[in-house]
Amino acid sequence: MEALFFWVFAIGMLLAGASVILNRNPVASALSLVVTMCFMAALFALLNAFFLAAIQILVYAGAVMVLFLFIIMLLDVKAEAKTRMRWISLVLGLVLAIFFSYELSLVLRDGVPMGAVPLAKLPPPPSDIATIGRLLFTKYLLPFEVVGVLLLVATIGVVLLSKRDNKPEAK
Amino acid sequence: MPWIAPEILLTALACVLLLVEAFAKPCPRLIGFVTLAGIFAAIGITIATPIASEFYVAPWGGLYCLDRPAQFFKVFFLVTAALVTWISLAADEESLPNRGEFFVFPLLTAAGLCLLASTMDFMVLFVALELVTISFYILVAYQRTNAIALEAGVKYLILGALSSAFLVMGIAYTFGITGSTQFVEIGRAIGHGPLPLGLKFGLLLIIFGLGFKVAAVPFHLWAPDVYQGAPTSITAFLSVGSKAAGFILLMRVLYTAFGSAAAFATWIPMLSVLAALSMLLGNLAAIPQRNLKRLLAYSSIGHSGFMLIGIIAQIRTPGLAISVFIYLITYLLANLAAFLVIAVASKTIRGEQIHQYAGLWQRSPVLAASLAIALVSLAGIPPTIGFIGKLSIFGAAWQSGLYPLFWIGVVSAVAGLYYYLGVVKAMFWSEPLDNTPIPACLCTKALLLVLSGLTLLLGFWPQGLQHLVRIVQS
Fold first, then answer.
1. What would the pLDDT profile of B73-112 be if each residue is shown by its tens digit?
2. I need a labelling partner for A160 at 20 to 30 A (CA). Which of B4, B52, B57, B285 fits?
3. Backbone dihedral region for residue A8 (phi beyond 0: left; psi -120 to 50: alpha; all else: beta)
């Protein structure tokens, strides 16, 4: 049963992913990306990572993609739809894609990770939200706080770069 | 937590200044001076903080360390940030929009750089690196009404995001195989055995990502356009701060996490190719350049190549990484002096083409002499400090038997003489386009004298430099 679900989700994700890059209409591409994210969330759920699945839907499919769509709709969609795919980007993209899939297949064939514990010996997974929260606020407090500063920088930067500069500098 | 006090101070000061700038609307120059004072305070704190030998700061075991190299790089980044703020103040273009924030952003960049100097974990590394990179995206595109600046910003954003993606992929592979993001733990997991294939790919991708930061060939494509389009003070920050950050990260990752014999066999050939290509391409491609900032961009690519030799030499003969520290000091002094002159001069001559610098000697002797000393130092001619830097790098290459890299380095350095001295020749022995003198304020002249004086003094008296670096090594 689980295998059946895996194949449905995985193939669905691949199809949706292909449709992201093959669609010439940016809105259709963005919507395909939402579908890809949803399938990925389903795969996380199959792995018992329910929190990750929920976050995937909430943050990526919900917040990030809606923002994407907003911005795309502000741009000129029709002009973008008319541009042809350039062969150079097609070739480079294909080379990168083949390189990474070949690499991944080699690595997966190479064997188990170092110091990996067999699945059967793993303790039952703790309630993952509590674990993540505890880690974030104890051991990984430093990077967590830095992410806050990072978001602040990005926010101010966006305002600075997009604000209309109509007031003369106050002397 | 006294260890991360400089980072906290810089971030807090930046937040306060942003609020003050939003509500009180003070004169932008005042913000610049407060920024400068804050950076000096951070330098003081960093030097005063005692080094606990090989420790990991308490609550976050293994994420953050404060050893001698970390302290050296923190001071290095803060001095760079202070000089960059000074260049911004000296250039102080009226045309720049939102000048107040322009002084505040380098504080946040400096905080990220200081954090990078101490990171011992890939998570902190990535987050701090993004903090630095994202603030650079904004600073590079700051003159957004200017087409060249906009192109620079877009190019830096897209290529920067791509390199970050490579870096994350590499980190993911490394974590997937070793089960840890901490450098020390990764080193322990690798042990003395052979490197699994996944780790080799991870290492390759991490070197891609960091190669972008130090602008090593073939990851240098962004550098010339971005250096040309960014405001001059930001170009200086990128060429010194961002590059040095790449080197401390390379040292931490390669020496601590990938420090086994099997790992050396993987990354030494990669880094050697990067070093050779960077030295050759950087120095040869600089020859036809007619724009001074573009020329310095290619020269900085070449300097990355020289410093990569020092990183490799450390493995063959331990202790030779000292040459990278020496080279970075020489590079900081010369490069920041050069950019300070460009920033001041372009206020009057409105451009950075080399032919516009013709006869600079008649128009402003101080600027011309400082720029000449800086360029001669970058070229590595005695008796400047740049010669000491080149000497220590080539000495390291010879001592550890890296003969092919040694000879490629020598050939590139000789090729480099041509374009550096071409600029000097234009400044001293060409007729000026017009004879109006170029004004420079007294403080800027004094600072230029200090920088040039240090360049010459330490060139005559290299023991001082060696003494300083030996303290770092101990």
1. 999 999 999 999 999 988 876 667 777 888 899 999 999 9
2. B4
3. alpha
